[in-house]
Design goal:
Elements (H helix, E strand, L loop, with lengths): L13 H8 L4 H35 L1
């Protein structure tokens, strides 16, 4: 679970997740899940960019 901070990846148990989303409407939950997917993709892209930069630096040596 990501909360908008690229360096924070919080793992929740199923119970904690249920408690978090229990009070949300279906629309709110859908938006919450969409945002989580978006943050997850951004994080993966950042990791890939960092790896590519690292490889470029190693090639330059």
């Amino acid at each position: 679970m990501l909360f908008g901070k690229k360096d924070k990846d919080v793992r929740l148990t199923a119970r904690q997740y249920k408690d978090l989303t229990n009070g949300m409407s279906k629309k709110e939950r859908r938006e919450f899940e969409r945002r989580q997917d978006e943050l997850r993709k951004e994080r993966e892209e950042d990791r890939l960019d960092a790896w590519l930069d690292f490889e470029d630096e190693m090639d330059d040596m």
